[in-house]
Automatic annotation (TrEMBL):
GO terms for biological process: lipopolysaccharide biosynthetic process. It is found in: Cell membrane. InterPro entries: LipidA_mod_glycosyltrf_83, RgtA/B/C-like. PANTHER family: BLL5595 PROTEIN, MANNOSYLTRANSFERASE YKCB-RELATED. Residues 63-221 form the Glycosyltransferase RgtA/B/C/D-like domain. It comes from Bradyrhizobium manausense. This is Glycosyltransferase RgtA/B/C/D-like domain-containing protein. GO terms for cellular component: plasma membrane. The chain crosses the membrane at residues 17-38, 72-100, 112-137, 170-193, 205-223, 243-272, 293-314, 320-340, 352-372. One of its GO terms (molecular function) is pentosyltransferase activity. Keywords: Cell membrane, Glycosyltransferase, Membrane, Transferase, Transmembrane, Transmembrane helix.
Length: 502
């Protein structure tokens, strides 16, 4: 009697259900990690929230949309960063659902499930799940743009132009890489007969009007800020180092997508049992235009981003690995053929689950065990609430005024701005980054200056003392980490700048 696993039968009978179960389980896993093991935001999320509460049209962090949405989510959650974590996971879910609909249009519902499952392993390794920002928000917008671009070019659905224009405008308000990504869409359209036919209609003109209206405020800010200039080209002597840097970036992308070729290799006949009759996942034949669309947007964004980043010496891939690799799973499925035999399904499920769970497990293990080595700090183990409450209450008790601004070390100051009072962040080392606050305004409103204490007296670093010559350091405040281990307590030096007239 032939036996087929329940998962395979569900892929055949209820493909959409499998996709929703997989993406919701992954989102739940990361939200549980945040609830149990994050006492402060990861990465630059606290700084992003400090910028977002100002609702500036543009900042040095880039276009404003992700900053605004982060602040809205933070306020909607009652002043808790968990709301931003939920927003990040909603972006993740939207990315996979959009990818599923695109894959279904190309390879059918059953193999579309495989494309989504493979892509989940790519994004798990190549991009952050909870560090919301432009790179996270760009993923669903890019996936939706690809979906509606295929509906316009491949399926000739003119009603998709309006959604396409909205998504293109929002992408321009999300990441500077939007210009590069939209240029790739134009290049593909011009290189195909169907795309050229589509561009000869009037719909693209109306779409351009919508995109221009959405992006106009940020474009005006860019022109006023005089930041439209391209980075300087490298000198001839630097080309070798830039080439090596580009090779490292390309290697990072390949490593991020390593689970896709591993799973494909494990599904080859080499690992099939002699008597095994593997179940087949079927699809209708893929038309040549669809095949070219998938291969182009699986390779061109990644290779183009590596070339640009290597040429101009950017530290990371333009657009983010999660954006440029979003089509890699679908490309592998298209390459696999019309009939995909699922050999050793139990082993494949185990390897896939390990690839999806491994990044979250790595975060948990780092939080619990890295402090015992004494080799480094875990930023998410800082007690954000205790830090913000202490300095807010100390300032109010000393001055009888509400804390309105925080300066000093940016990471610590950003954590204090998360307090319910939402004081302004002032980056005193580079005041141009925070145009809503200046040295004069800070002196007028008063505030707290913080730094990492290097001694028991809380002596300020020379650069902070130079910018705030009149401050009197207080006794440093010590805070415990989530797991102290062998590392010392977090000691924060601080001083109060009293409001004028207090």
């Amino acid at each position: 009697m032939r036996f087929t696993s329940l998962v395979i039968e569900l892929i055949r009978a209820r493909p959409r259900l499998i996709v929703w179960i997989a993406v919701l389980l992954q989102a739940t896993m990361w939200l549980l990690v945040a609830l149990l093991f994050y006492r402060s935001p990861p990465g630059n999320l606290a700084t992003l929230l400090a910028f977002g509460r100002e609702y500036q049209v543009g900042t040095d962090l880039g276009p404003p949309l992700s900053l605004w949405l982060a602040d809205i989510a933070y306020r909607a959650a009652g002043g808790h960063v968990f709301g931003v974590y939920v927003l990040a996971e909603l972006c993740e879910i939207a990315t996979f659902i959009a990818l599923y609909h695109l894959s279904r249009a190309v390879v059918g519902s059953q193999q579309a499930v495989l494309a989504v499952l493979l892509t989940m392993t790519v994004l798990a390794f190549s991009s952050s799940a909870l560090d919301f920002g432009p790179l996270v928000l760009a993923r669903p917008l890019w996936a939706l743009l690809l979906l509606h671009s295929w509906q316009i070019i491949g399926q000739r659905r003119g009603n998709a132009w309006f959604a396409w224009s909205i998504e293109a405008g929002l992408l321009l308000l999300t990441t500077p890489a939007a210009v590069f990504l939209l240029a790739l869409l134009v290049i593909f359209a011009l290189s195909t007969a169907g795309g050229r036919r589509t561009l000869r209609a009037l719909d693209p003109l109306f779409a351009l009007v919508v995109v221009a209206v959405l992006a106009l405020p940020y474009a005006v800010w860019l022109m006023r800020a005089q930041t439209l200039a391209l980075p300087a080209l490298p000198q001839t002597a630097d080309l070798g180092a830039r080439a090596i840097h580009a090779a490292w970036l390309l290697g990072g992308l390949v490593f991020g997508a390593i689970a896709v070729p591993v799973l494909s290799f494990l599904n080859t006949p080499l690992f099939a049992g002699k008597s095994e009759e593997a179940p087949i996942i079927y699809r209708p034949p893929v038309e040549p235009l669809a095949r070219n669309f998938v291969y182009f947007f699986a390779l061109a964004p990644a290779l183009g981003a590596v070339l640009i980043s290597g040429l101009f010496g950017f530290e990371t891939v333009v657009g983010g690995a999660g954006v440029v690799l979003v089509m890699s799973g679908l490309a592998m499925v298209v390459m696999a053929g019309d009939l995909i035999a699922m050999r050793r399904a139990r082993m494949l499920r185990t390897v896939w689950a390990a690839a999806v769970i491994a990044p979250a497990a790595g975060v948990v293990l780092a939080v619990l065990f890295l402090p015992w080595t004494g080799t480094g700090e875990i930023a998410t183990s800082m007690p954000a609430h205790a830090i913000s409450d202490f300095f807010d209450e100390s300032f109010a008790r000393r001055t009888n005024h509400r804390l309105r601004a925080v300066a000093g070390e940016t990471q610590l100051a950003s954590l204090i701005t998360l307090h319910s009072g939402r004081p302004h962040l002032f980056i005193d080392a580079n005041p141009a980054r925070t145009p809503w606050m200046s040295q004069a305004k800070f002196s007028e409103s008063g505030g707290v200056v913080v730094w990492r204490a290097s001694d028991t007296g809380g002596t300020p670093p020379p650069e902070i003392l130079a910018r705030f010559p009149g401050i009197v350091p207080e006794v440093p405040r010590a805070f415990e980490w989530l797991v102290n281990g062998r590392q010392g307590l977090l000691r924060i030096g601080w001083a109060i700048v009293r409001p004028k007239g207090a």
